[in-house]
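WARN retry 2 of 3 for item q-0093 after timeout on previous attempt; input resubmitted unchanged.
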Amino acid sequence: ELFPLLRECGVADIEINPPPEHMSEAAAQAYQALEAGFRCHFHAPYPVNFPVRDYNGSGKAASEEIFRNLFDLALECAVRQGSPSVINLHGAAGKLGRYDPIELRRATRDFLRWAVGVVGDYPVKLALETMFYSTTTYRVGQFGSEILDIVKEVGGKALGLGLDMGHCARYERDSGVPYELSDDFIKRVTHAHLHDIDPNGVDHVPLLYGNVGYDGYLPWLARRHYQGVVVLELDYEPLKQAGDPGEILRLSAQRARQAWKGIGPGERR
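OK item q-0093 returned
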C-alpha cells in the first residue's frame, strides 16, 4: 500500500535507516523497494551505536565492521538500480567535558579517510550531514565550515556534504545565528534532508508548521543546479498524529515541489 502512495507523491528514491543488529532486515526492505522501482539510499546508524567518536581508540573495529556491512548493501543497490547509492552519516558526537571537539573532528576525518578508501571508485557516495547546536553535546557538523573543511581535507569524489534543513533550522533557533552555508559548501552537497519542526520543538515532522525555511533552501539548491536527492525525512508517529498519513504525506510532498519551483513566501539568498 505504501509504494503506490509514494509514487503518487512523486517519490523516486527511498532512504533506509538500518540499525546494525538488523542489517538483514534493512536488506529485505531495500530489495522490496528496488523491486517496486525505487532507488535506495541509506542513513548510517546514529552515533550512539555507530562509535565514530572512538574511531581512534576502542571504536575503530566496530565502526569499520558496521560500515563494511552497510557499504556492501549500498553497493548491491547501486548496481541493481543503475545509479549511485548514498550513505548519509553524522560526524562524531560526544558529551562536552568528556570528549574534546578537536578529537571528535579528528576521529570523523580519520574514519572518513578510511571509508573513502573502502568505497574507492564504486558507485557509492558518502554525505557528511549538517547537525544542530547543543550546550551539552558537541556534534561534528554543527558548524558548516567545520564539515566543509573535513570534506576538503579528506578529498575523493565519493565524499560530499549532506544538507539537513531541519538541523540547520534547529541550529539557528538554539544558537541565535544562521547556520554557516556558502556557495563553496553548497556545490559539495550530494544529499539533502527535508522536514519540519512542530511547536514543541520535535523535528522530523510533516511540512505543516513553517518552522524550517525550506521555501528558501530548496530554490537556493535549484538555482545552484543541485542534482542530488531531497529526502522527505519524516517519522511515522508525527505523520499519523497530524491526520490521515496519506493526505499529510501528499501535502508535504506538494509543498516541497512548490518550494523547489520557487512558489513560496521567502527565499534564501
